[in-house]
Each structure stands twice: as C-alpha cells, then as structure tokens.
C-alpha cells in the first residue's frame, strides 16, 4: 500500500473544502441545541474553559488519529481498518472497528433525522407567527402537538432524509463538497445575524458574563439549604460532561471523519486541518451561546432549562420579542443547516462501503442506505407517542432512548478509544509519522503521548461515567 493512492470516490478539491466538510460534520445539533443548555446547567464560563481544554487534549488528538487512518487507507472505514491492520500484520478483526463506526452513524442518523425534522417544522411554525403571544403552557402544547403525532413526525423525517440522500447521491465533488461550500458559510452568516440581534436585546452583557466569566466554585460545589443550614457537595460531574462533549461534538468515533479523511489531498496538513475544524466547531458553539443566552435573560427565562431550551424555552422568547417571527424562523433554518451538514457525513461511510464492496452506483447506495435509516427512524417517531408507554420499553428506555444510550455511551466512546489505541500503539510509527508529517519532532511526540495515554484514558472514564460505574 502506498501513501499516494487515491479514493475511488474522488477527493476534496482543496484543504478548505476538507475543513468545511469536516467542520460541517462536527457542527450540528450538539453545538446549537446541546452545548448552550449543558453550559447553562453547569455554571457557564468555568464550564466553557474546561470544555476548551478538553477539546485541545482529547478532541484534536483523536481527530488527527481518525483522519490519518482515513487518508492512509483511502477507503470506507470498514475496508480502511481491514487494510491497515493487514499492512501491519495485525488481526483482521480490526475491521470490526470500521463496522461499528458505520453502524453507529446509521443508528444516530435514524433519530437525528427525526429531531432535525422538528427543526424543519419549527421553521414554518415560527414564520407563520405561531409563537406570538404564547405562554409556557401554550409553547408546551405546540411542541406536544408535534411530537404526539406520528403522521407529522413521519412527514418531516421523510423530507429531511430525502434532503440527505439527495446530496450524498451526487458524490464527493458534486454532492458533499457543493453542499458544504454553500451551507457552511450561510450557517456562519445566520449565526452572526442571530448574535447581532442578541446584542440589541438589552441583556447581551449579562449573556456574555454568564458564558465567559469563570466561576469554578459554582461549577464544582452544589449548595442547598437543609434545616436552615447551607450544605455544599463537591462533584467532578461537570468536568466529565465537558470531557464527553469535547469528544462527541467533533463527530468522532462514528466513521464520518475517517471517511472524509480518505478524500483528503495528500498535501494537506492533518494537524492544521484538525485544529481549524476544532476552532470552527467551537466557534459555532460559542456563537450559539452568545445568541441564545441574551435572548433567554432578556425574557426572564432559565438558562439551565435542559433539552427543552431550543424547542420550548426559545419559542417562548421569540413569541414575545420584536421581529420574533423573522428571527425565530432564521434560528431554526440555522438549526436545519447544521443538522443537514452532519447528516450527510453520517450516511457517507455506509454508502462508500456499498459502492466499494457491492458495486452499487452512488444513487443506488444512497437510496438503499437512506431507506434503511428512514425505516429505523420510525421506531424513534413511535417512541414519542405510540410506543411511549412502559409496555414498549426495554430496561426502562424507549426505542429512542435505547439507541441514544447505545451510541452515545458505548459505541462512540469505545470507537474513540480503539482508534487511539490503533493509531498510537499498533500502527507503525513510520506510517503515522508519514501521514501527519509534522514540522517538528516534538509535535509528533506530543501527539503520540496524548493519543497513547491521555485521550484513551479520558474517553474511557467518560464511558464509565455514562454507564453509571462511578
């Protein structure tokens, strides 16, 4: 195997296109939906600092490892891991790591598409002015009317999956690259527009203070009054949440970054590209916080309101503010764009494998993979209505909860740990040095130390914490 080989699927036309595509994969609902509410729940600025440190020490080293594996193999994650294992005389069972990534991506997309369908639906609800004048109960009723209707959810899920399949079917240059060439700049423009609007809410400085002012005592110590006395308890949980989100937000462990790396030009620096991807991903998350928290504070709402922040708390604010119809619609368009760029990367590994191993055309592979994911998504749809009762639950979890638990808590962190072990311990030093091609030996030794010891240990701790071991 030579380092000059190219993927049969084509390659990105430039380093910028790879960065935009990989950033599009990383930037998704987690940045705009999850990051603001977990920041709100875990104390604001101090949590942001911990998150940024974790991105540097955990996210970037594993991203570099996953990209270098992808570019070295130049195939789908399944075939890449099989070939790289054979090149170093390792057990061919390492191909199962590729299978796990492809499967995880498909499972995630099956429920991701349903949630993205909510955002699509809310674009039209916001534009129609349905949020105007609603109180907390009215916003809750509006949301429940959507998720309690299998027909509505199925329609929006179908539209979003069609959008995803359409892009992927066009191929690397005409589909994936063309999509991110327009969607990522538009996403940043929309985000800046939302931040500009937040600056005029009257609570922008309060939002910035909450987001960036570090108050570590408020993060690690949780105090409550009991029998007239204030009792404070120390907890490492916010740090573990920051570690976990730093890993998950970069779209690692699910084959997406590996397959995108396989389309990466040889001349492109993996380290520099990984840093820029992390910067883009983190910038979107911080801009989301800068847009959302001033709106929340200006309307007297709770920043730590959990997963309902986007679909229940913010619509309440949009319904009360000037030009709320316009900016509400723009916000949910932004959310759809972020979800769309992620969804095409989630299905690409399966499509690439079908083209390589089954001789499918891109169109046929996209339709086949998309239909399989679409069918699985029906289980998530029913989880919010027809199958929400206890009789349909397994281990106390709905179908959606079970998929989310398996992927987020087991498959992705396990995939990240195994990628770090393979790249840091099993792959030949010559191969990883050749692909990374770092300017100074100290940089390579630093990456190798992090990917061998720090990142797998941290991700493994995150997995144990998520499984309730401690």
Your description of this structure?
This protein is an all-alpha fold and 470 residues long. It has a single domain, classed as Amino acid/polyamine transporter I (Up-down Bundle). Helix content is 74%, strand content 3%. The chain contains 19 helices and 2 strands. The protein has helices at residues 15-26, 29-41, 45-73, 77-87, 95-127, 136-147, 150-169, 171-198, 204-212, 216-220, 237-248, 256-261, 270-298, 308-318, 324-358, 362-383, 399-426, 429-436, 441-466; strands spanning 221-226, 229-234. It has a two-stranded antiparallel sheet with strand order 1-2. The protein starts with 14 loop residues before the first helix and ends with a helix. The relative contact order is 0.20. The model has no long low-confidence stretch (mean pLDDT 91).
Layout of secondary structure:
Layout: H1 15-26, H2 29-41, H3 45-73, H4 77-87, H5 95-127, H6 136-147, H7 150-169, H8 171-198, H9 204-212, H10 216-220, E1 221-226, E2 229-234, H11 237-248, H12 256-261, H13 270-298, H14 308-318, H15 324-358, H16 362-383, H17 399-426, H18 429-436, H19 441-466
State the order of secondary-structure elements, H for helix, E for strand: HHHHHHHHHHEEHHHHHHHHH
The CATH top-level class label:
Mainly Alpha
- CATH fold name: Amino acid/polyamine transporter I
Physical arrangement of strands within the biggest beta sheet: 1-2
Radius of gyration: 22 Å
Provide the structure class.
Answer: mainly alpha
Distance between the termini: 44 Å
Low-confidence runs = none
Q: What shape does the CA trace take? A: globular
Largest sheet: 2 strands, antiparallel
Structure annotation, total helices: 19
Relative helix content: over 70%
Number of domains: 1
Question: Overall pLDDT, averaged?
Answer: 91
Total beta strand runs: 2
Write the CATH architecture name. Up-down Bundle
Strand residue content: under 5%
């Amino acid at each position: 195997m030579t380092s000059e080989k190219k993927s049969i699927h084509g390659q990105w036309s430039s380093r910028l296109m790879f960065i935009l595509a990989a950033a599009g994969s990383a930037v998704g609902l987690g940045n705009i939906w999850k990051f603001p509410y977990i920041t709100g729940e875990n104390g604001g600025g101090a949590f942001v600092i911990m998150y940024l440190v974790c991105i540097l020490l955990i996210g970037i080293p594993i991203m570099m490892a996953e990209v270098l594996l992808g570019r070295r193999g130049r195939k789908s994650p399944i075939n890449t891991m099989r070939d790289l294992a054979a090149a170093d005389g390792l057990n061919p069972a390492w191909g199962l790591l590729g299978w796990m990534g492809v499967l995880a991506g498909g499972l995630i997309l099956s429920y991701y598409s349903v949630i993205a369908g909510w955002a699509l639906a809310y674009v039209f609800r916001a534009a129609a002015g349905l949020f105007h004048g609603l109180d907390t109960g009215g916003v809750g009723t509006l949301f429940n009317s959507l998720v309690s209707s299998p027909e509505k959810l199925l329609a929006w899920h179908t539209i979003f999956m069609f959008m995803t399949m359409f892009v992927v079917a066009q191929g690397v240059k005409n589909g994936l690259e063309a999509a991110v060439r327009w969607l990522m700049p538009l996403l940043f423009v929309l985000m800046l527009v939302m931040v500009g609007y937040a600056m005029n809410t009257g609570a922008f400085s309060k939002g910035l203070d909450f987001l960036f002012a570090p108050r570590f005592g408020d993060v690690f110590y949780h105090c409550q009054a009991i029998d007239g006395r204030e009792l404070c308890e120390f907890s490492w949980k916010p740090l573990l949440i920051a570690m976990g989100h730093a890993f998950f937000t970069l779209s690692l462990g699910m084959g997406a970054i590996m397959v995108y790396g396989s389309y990466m030009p040889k001349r492109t620096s993996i380290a520099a590209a990984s840093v820029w991807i992390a910067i883009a991903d983190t910038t979107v998350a911080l801009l989301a916080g800068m847009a959302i928290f001033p709106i929340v504070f200006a309307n007297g709402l709770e920043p730590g309101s959990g997963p309902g922040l986007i679909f229940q708390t913010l619509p309440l604010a949009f319904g009360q503010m000037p030009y709320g119809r316009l900016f509400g619609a723009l916000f949910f368009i932004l959310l759809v764009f972020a979800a769309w760029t992620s969804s095409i990367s989630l299905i690409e590994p399966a499509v690439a494998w079908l083209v390589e191993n089954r001789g499918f055309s891109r169109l046929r592979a996209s339709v086949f993979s998309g239909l399989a994911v679409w069918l699985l998504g029906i289980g998530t749809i029913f989880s919010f209505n027809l199958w929400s009762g206890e009789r349909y639950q397994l281990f106390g979890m709905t179908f959606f909860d079970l998929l989310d638990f398996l992927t987020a808590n087991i498959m992705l962190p396990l995939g990240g740990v195994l990628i770090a072990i393979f790249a840091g311990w099993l792959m030949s030093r010559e191969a990883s040095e050749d692909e990374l091609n770092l300017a100074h030996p100290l940089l390579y030794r630093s990456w190798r130390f992090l990917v061998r010891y720090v990142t797998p240990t941290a991700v493994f701790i995150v997995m144990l914490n998520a499984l309730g071991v401690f």
